[in-house]
């Protein structure tokens, strides 16, 4: 009470208004308590879909809806249509590629990717790698070069090598001062040696090539089948 008396006139008016509004709010909620409370609704009955029976007796078969019966009674697909002039569409090819029998061989330098896939152990991806590396080399001069194909391991090589033969020769490299083609067996230093010989001391011979410290005996053995010297 003392604190109330200490308040000035304006503060007492504000406090009085707040108390009146609070009292009105409580009275409003009391009067409308029945309207605010949610009413529980009884569960509605679920109507069953009408069904048509295949027979009047339940013992003669199951009961089906009309949509199911429409599906069962729909005419079956009659395609393909064949006549004396048209035998029908071609049959779809299966994904399986028949493999070569043991003892069969193919030419490693002429086989395309489809033929290579007939070799046990070679799939589409590896067949493309073999053909791509063959193009970079200018052809394989021996089956052992398959070891250089990316991803080749000893197990795969031992599996596919018996099916490979070399019946077609390789493509020679065309060398000139202005053009040394890219080749897996020619590094940048190898090309510089060949360019210097062709520019300063032609013609190109193995004696001149091996006189440089860049080419080794192994380099010459790998590269010899591709140089017509």
From TrEMBL:
GO annotation (BP), single: protein secretion by the type II secretion system
Region annotation Disordered: where it falls in the sequence: 36-67
The keyword Nucleotide-binding belongs to this UniProt entry's keyword annotation: no
One GO cellular component term noted in the UniProt record for this chain: type II protein secretion system complex
Keywords recorded for this protein, A-Z: Membrane, Transmembrane, Transmembrane helix
Transmembrane segments: 12-31
A Pfam family per the record: HHH_3
Domain of life of the native organism: Bacteria
Keyword Lyase among UniProt keywords: no
Protein name per UniProt: Competence protein ComEA helix-hairpin-helix repeat region
């Amino acid at each position: 009470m003392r604190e109330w008396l200490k308040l000035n006139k304006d503060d007492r008016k504000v406090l009085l208004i707040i108390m009146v509004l609070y009292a009105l709010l409580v009275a409003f909620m009391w009067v409308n308590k029945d309207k605010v409370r949610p009413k529980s609704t009884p569960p509605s009955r679920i109507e069953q879909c009408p069904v048509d029976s295949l027979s009047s007796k339940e013992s003669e078969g199951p009961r089906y809806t009309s949509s199911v019966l429409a599906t069962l009674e729909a005419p079956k697909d009659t395609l393909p249509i064949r006549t004396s002039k048209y035998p029908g569409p071609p049959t779809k090819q299966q994904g399986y590629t028949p493999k070569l029998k043991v003892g069969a061989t193919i030419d490693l330098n002429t086989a395309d990717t489809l033929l290579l896939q007939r070799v046990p152990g070679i799939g589409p991806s590896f067949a493309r790698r073999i053909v791509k590396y063959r193009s970079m080399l200018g052809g394989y001069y021996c089956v052992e070069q398959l070891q250089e194909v990316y991803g080749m391991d000893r197990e795969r090589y031992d599996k596919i090598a018996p099916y490979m033969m070399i019946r077609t020769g390789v493509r020679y490299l065309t060398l000139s001062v202005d053009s040394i083609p890219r080749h897996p067996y020619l590094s940048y230093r190898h090309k510089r040696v060949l360019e210097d010989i062709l520019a300063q001391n032609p013609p190109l011979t193995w004696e001149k090539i091996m006189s440089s410290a860049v080419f080794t005996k192994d380099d010459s053995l790998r590269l010899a089948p591709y140089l017509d010297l």
